[in-house]
Each structure stands twice: as structure tokens, then as C-alpha cells.
Write the C-alpha cells for this entry.
Amino acid sequence: MSMVPAEGGPTTGPTVLRMLLGAQLRRLRESSGVTREGAGWEIRSSESKISRMELGRVGFKERDVSDLLTLYGVTEEHERDALLKLARDANSPGWWHRYGDVLPTWFQSYLGLEAAAALIRSYEVQFVPGLLQTREYARAVVLLGHGAAGPGEIDRRVALRMQRQQLLRRDSPPQLWAVVDEAALRRPIGGPMVMRGQLTALIEATKSPHIRLQVIPFAAGGHAAAGGAFTILRFGDQELPDIVYIEQLTSAIYLDKRDDLDYYAVAMERLCVEVEPPERTAEILGRLLDDLYPA
């Protein structure tokens, strides 16, 4: 198995490179019988730092990686060079780095994961999914949370969201499977004209082979995901576990433990079976468009 992902592949973003390197270091540590505490002592740090490194949650210092490789008995020059190069590449900033003035740290992590995902499954109850928002709808959403910001900041926040959507237009886009509550489609964010444009854009999105959209009608009553919005990210590399992302007002939760993943995966599967099938989505959206926002 190659120690480094193929150049230019869909998993070469810095976030996933950190995850891949962390997974390699964990396997090397376990096979050499070294504890996390022992590894932490070797790099003048702590057990918790080793844990964060192995999960890809922090950046890597080349000196630390080199010392750990020595501790784990990795002496072959080619293997060491490959892993040290991976450490250097993993520290490269993502495209979102230039939006750091309007982007909280906890969301930067999500953007890296989203950009590297092969499958993005999301449930939304409040808004249209960010990856499918029109510019006008995105601006209205941004104004809801940042109404006191100046025009320049609003423009940058909207530009960030539009840039984020480019991953759906690249040569090898991820599969997006979104389930949206009817409430999000009826809530008049930005007014009738904005909503008409947004619903029209969603109808167009249903034609894309890599986008699957389902609507939960009010008539469905209660359902498996009634607890709130969440996203499940799956990656193309089998070494990387799925991640559940739950956004809050000022932070986010990332879940990667098997019990948590299974719980949310089952909820998503039940949801997708219980609601209207994707084949009916364009019809449902068209009906909402005619009823709520007629031309």
C-alpha cells in the first residue's frame, strides 16, 4: 500500500493529509508496542498531543515526525522521506486560508474535510444546504447572523460560501446526498424573489448526476432525524473513518467513534427511506414554487 496519496488526487487537501499521516503514525506506534505516553515523552509533549496528531487534528512538526519514526523503528530512507514529505504537505494552507478574517477556526476544519470527502450526506431543517445556496439566498442567510457587519465583510462571507461550492463543479466532484425539511423551503429567507431563485436552482440541481436531493414534507410528521441538522462525511481512502459534523452557534462537534457513526448512519438511512424519493423532488419543489412564489 502506498504511503502517500497520488499527486493531484481528490484526497490531497491538507486536512486529509494530516489524517492520513496520523493514521500511519498510529499504526507504526502500535506495531512497535509504544504507548501514546511514551511517544509523547519522546517528542517533549503529552499523550493528548499524540492522540490529536494521530487523529489529524493538529499540524505536524517535521522534527516531531522524524523523532517518532526513529522511535518506531522506521529506518528505511525512502519510507522516512515519504512520510516527512507528507508532513510538509499537510502543513500547507487550504484555499480557505485567505478568508481567515471571517472564518472561525472550528469551521476551517470542516471545510478541509468537506473538500476531501467522496460522499457528503446532510440533513437540514433550518436552511437550504450551503453547497446548494444561490448567491442571493446565501447573502440573506449571512445577514441573519451578521447583520451588524459592514458591506465588505458581508461580501467576503458570501464569496467564501460561493467558493466552497466549487467542489461540486470540479472534474471529480463528491456525491452530495441532502435531505431538506419542507420548513427550510417555505421559510422566506430574503423574500419571495430570492426564494423563487433558490427553489429554481434546487430544481436545476436535481438534474446533476452527483447530487441527490430529498424533501421531508410536513405530512411526514415525526422522523428519525428530528434531533437536528447534521452531516456525515465519507472519504475515498479506506484508511479514513467517516465523520459526523454537527454545527452549533459558536462551535461544532466532530464525531468519529464507531457507536456514534452507526447511530447517525442508521438515522440517515431511515430518513432517506421514510421521506419522498429523489425522483419526486423536482415535482415537490415545482409545486412549492407555484404555490408560494408564483411568477
Observations:
- Residues 1-12 have pLDDT under 50 and may be disordered.
- Strands lie at 117-124, 175-181, 211-216, 230-235, 243-247, 252-255.
